[in-house]
Specification:
Alpha/beta hydrolase; alpha/beta; about 350 residues; single chain
């Protein structure tokens, strides 16, 4: 029996064979795509992270919505689709300038949006600050150091137009969570270490004296500490490949400059660091705190014993239904207040 006559006598089997061949071909193409580009894995991670970020923000609706805070959204600070920011101010402040917290959102450099931390920033602003949430272009759409360049542009915009937004240009604090914490820390290091600024070819947009402090939550400050052989190895490879634009990022001289732990000096601003006890990035925060303390930089920390219960996962500070989340919020407010002086 020829192949043609077999196909005619068994049409259903022939259709199934064609479908199977298509599935195998698609599987091969997908596997190849995962091996030659970070995009497929990055989009999967982005979908999961964004869903988590939206749920986290929604959990704070009941607490944030009634607060008397004025919000201005999507203010453009530079050229480009993603270069927008939101400004939060207590209504009672009128037009008075307030100490200002500029917060860079997290998301593993490949996801996230300022809107996913909107309620938390509103809660912070209600404590008597001008708070700014900054968007930047995520990876793989843009690679390192684009978010740092954009963050620097946002700071310059806010500094120049401080009167319009109720910002005290002499009392600015850079803050961030997760990947945003790394971006904030690197931006602060560039502002306070001109040799480093020259090395990464990014000029400070505000005077070092204006940057009074940093608030760094659950960040990564030394990429060489990333355990790509551990249980989160595939995830780490995806985000680092996406952000750096290089699969062999570990051998890239430019990528090494993202490890801000190696470039902070004694001029780095006073810093508050926190991380959950069950966060795989905990060693990064601990190493950063140790380094800053050794340099004589004023450091305040909120770390938890290994056996703390309930175990605190990544981004624990945004969960204000927990005692630990409330403690982090209170300590952030107290730290920023102490570093920026009395508030109106």
């Amino acid at each position: 029996m020829t192949e043609l006559s077999w196909g005619r006598r068994h049409p259903l089997l022939r259709v199934l064979a064609i479908i199977l061949a298509i599935i195998i071909a698609l599987g091969t193409l997908t596997w190849t795509a995962f091996k030659v580009s970070p995009w497929p894995s990055a989009l999967v991670v982005r979908s999961m992270f964004d869903r988590g970020g939206e749920e986290m923000n929604a959990a704070l609706d009941a607490r944030a919505n009634p607060l008397p805070v004025r919000v201005t959204t999507d203010v453009r600070y530079s050229e480009g689709r993603d270069t927008v920011l939101d400004v939060y101010r207590p209504e009672s402040a009128g037009s008075d300038p307030l100490p200002t917290i500029v917060w860079i959102h997290g998301g593993g450099w490949i996801s996230g949006d300022k809107g996913q931390i909107a309620n938390y920033l509103k809660i912070l602003a209600n404590e008597g600050f001008t708070v700014v949430g900054v968007n930047y272009t995520i990876a793989p759409e843009a690679t390192y150091p684009t978010p740092v360049v954009q963050t620097m542009a946002a700071l310059g915009f806010l500094f120049r137009d401080a009167d319009e937004w109720g910002i005290d240009p002499d009392n600015m604090v850079l803050a961030g969570d997760s990947a945003g914490s790394q971006i904030a820390a690197q931006t602060a290091a560039i502002i306070t270490n001109l040799d480093y600024a020259e090395q990464v070819s990014i000029s400070p947009s505000i005077p070092a004296s204006s940057l009074r402090a940093t608030v760094l939550a659950c960040g990564a400050y030394d990429l060489s500490l990333a355990n790509v052989e551990g249980p989160f190895g595939d995830f780490l490879k995806t985000v680092l490949w996406s952000y750096t634009g290089r699969r062999d990022y570990a051998s890239d001289p430019q990528t090494r400059t993202a490890s801000v732990l190696n470039y902070v000096d004694q001029n780095f601003p006073a810093s508050f660091l926190t991380v959950g006890n069950a966060d795989s990035l905990a060693p990064q925060s601990e190493a950063m705190a140790t380094k800053l303390d050794g340099l004589g930089v004023p450091v305040d920390t909120l770390f938890f014993p290994k056996g703390y219960e309930p175990a605190l996962q990544h981004e624990y500070q945004f969960d204000l239904s927990t005692e630990a989340g409330e403690q982090a919020l209170a300590q952030i407010v107290a730290f920023v207040s102490a570093q920026t002086g009395p508030r109106p």
